[in-house]
Amino acid sequence: MKSNRQLAILRIIENQEIPTQEELLTALKKEGFTATQATISRDIKELRLHKVPATVGQKYSVKPDLRSPVTREDKYRNVLTSVLVSAVPAGNIGVIKTLSGTASAAAAALEAENFTEIIGTLAGDDTLLVLFATDRAAGLFCRRVEELYLMEKGYTGETEL
Question: Does domain 2-62 have CATH number 3.30.70.270?
């Protein structure tokens, strides 16, 4: 899956000095991913990876594009990813745990994203309940929230939030 492969790429370049696409392909293969050079090239572009100075030569790194303006959606996404602790479905409810005192900010961030599957939210101090029409929607949403968080933090899907 693309998102799992891209999470692995982020983790690899965070922990290793990877100077070439070939070395990135080799590292991904060691992690159980098969991809072509063209796929890796697209991933590098989508992840906005750049080469930066390394111990010897250069390496891939995540570097924000300073020319891109920060949008309202980016600000809300940053709020959400900075306060999120976990996202777990419970029937047709998503139970979102946040840092103490930040559940309302997380609710505002989610509502600003205009997810059509959300019926409503209820925020406490560190817990946010997100109501959905179906159990499936709650499960898919919680996975999307976790992927968003994991991508922002550069973690793999194997670690707990």
Answer: no
Shortest CA distance to 147 belongs to which of 100, 102, 80? 80
Average pLDDT over residues 8-28: 92
**Domain regions of the chain by residue span:** 2-62, 72-153
Its CATH class, for the domain covering 72-153, is alpha beta
Q: Which of 63, 64, 68, 40 has the alpha carbon at shortest distance from 52? A: 63
One-character DSSP codes across the chain: -HHHHHHHHHHHHHHS---SHHHHHHHHHHTT----HHHHHHHHHHTTEEEEE-SSSEEEEE---TTSPPPHHHHHHHHHHHHEEEEEEETTEEEEEESTT-HHHHHHHHHHTT-TTEEEEEE-SSEEEEEESSHHHHHHHHHHHHHHHHHHHT--TTS--
**pTM listed for this prediction:** 0.51
Q: How far apart are CA 46 and CA 50, in angstroms?
A: 11
Q: How many beta carbons lie within 10 A of that of residue 82, not counting itself? A: 16
Average pLDDT rounded to a whole number, residues 10-33: 92
